[in-house]
Amino acid sequence: MINKKILVFILLLMPFLGIAQGMNFEHITLEEALTKAKAENKLVFIDFYTVWCGPCKKMARDIFPLSTVGEMYNKNFINLKLDAEKEGEAVAKQYNVTGYPTLLYLDTDGKVLLMDTAYKPEDVFLDMAERAISSINSEYSLENLQDMFVDKQNDEQFLKMYIKKMDEFGQDISVGVDAWLKVQTEMDESSPEMLKYLLKNSRNILIGGKGEQILDENYETFMKQASSFEAKMLPRIKTQILNGTFDTAVRNKDPELMKTYIEAYKSQPEDRIREDYLVEAELIYFDMLDDDASYKATAANYINMLITKTSIEDIHQEDKKSYEMYKKAYDRDPKPERVSMLNASKEGLKALKLLKEIDEKGKEYLKRVTSNSEYKVVKTWIKYGYELKADNCFTDDLKAEMYYKKGKTKKAIQLKERAIKNWPTSDKKFVNKAYELEQMKKGASI
């Protein structure tokens, strides 16, 4: 067995002995990283992750420890790992991080050189580092492209290059696609080539933009000339455009675009409108505007609608029927994979879904509470939650945060601990509850 002192000595000497090692992640703030990068003539790399994110864990396990990756990144970057839902939340918001993992490359002034999401294999991850480095002195750096775009929206060839480069930088290309479609001369708007382009870029076409206009004006022509696959996909393109507009509005924090999305969503056939999706978009819109009054009114109306829509007795009856259905299926064929669903149905599927929704929306409402009358509103939701299910972690969670906001820290901690004890471990964000409890004990914001 190797002596512990010798092992520590070897580990300390690894960088000097040339022994292979992976990425070295610094435990410092972004500001400190930028200062250090400037002093060492390096750039800054940030891995934004969450503890529940599978691709994040795969990057940490399979890519970051590689010697080739360590050699490239340790030589050229100050590397940071930030949990986007914990200590890195503020920085994640600063750079509009909405997916995980997000891989962010910055210059020493904190300007974005490259940004992309999702798991990357070794060769792609190394190539991203090289592209970030080379972009510093490039005419077509991300910053230069964004500046040039303002004055070149009638330049067809520039826009084509802009879309390609912005896509390589991991940036939103929807505005570029819209600008290019307005001036392009490569394709007739009713041609099969245009149909292929629109289908390929359906998530990059904005509601009310040139792409949607071309689609509407040539839909019948497109259907006549479409392949069997294209004919299958074409009726779905409107949904893709709708979803893409929502994603772009969220990513760019664009309230006007979100408003456009909401109006388009409402104009769909009634059977395609989901109240929870619509409310979520409206709440995001009011949050973008910092319109707390409208946010609270919308959240309160929604929660009140949920708790008055169906009586508690009817919810219990529906849950009982669901459990009996799953129980019969399990008794008839007791497959192991059916056990978790059987246990969940025993707890009451509809009741738990409703309680979780009240908890999530209620906590966001609570963050904006400024009066006793608004606290009373939250208390009515808590009262309802316990009436629906006497012992449940979701109402404990909401009540804990109300106590914490009112300065009753001891009671808040007790309830948060009880909520964690009973929280369904199948919930991928279960791990965040321990962090919230930790923040409460520190007296920090959550």
Would you write up a description of this structure?
This protein is mainly α and 446 residues long. Mean pLDDT is 92; it is low at 14-19. The chain has 23 helices and 4 strands. 65% of the residues lie in helices and 6% in strands. The protein has a 4-stranded mixed beta sheet. A hairpin with a 5-residue loop joins strand 3 and strand 4. The chain has 3 domains: 15-137, 3-Layer(aba) Sandwich (Glutaredoxin), CATH 3.40.30; 144-277, no CATH class; 291-442, Serine Threonine Protein Phosphatase 5, Tetratricopeptide repeat. It has helices at residues 4-17, 30-40, 54-63, 67-76, 89-94, 122-134, 142-151, 156-168, 174-183, 192-200, 210-225, 228-233, 237-252, 255-266, 275-288, 292-309, 312-332, 339-347, 349-366, 372-388, 393-405, 409-422, 431-442; strands at residues 43-49, 77-83, 102-106, 112-117. It comes from Aestuariibaculum lutulentum. This is Thioredoxin family protein. InterPro entries: AGR/TXD, Thioredoxin-like_sf, Thioredoxin_CS, Thioredoxin_domain. Residues 1-134 form the Thioredoxin domain. Keywords: Redox-active center, Signal.
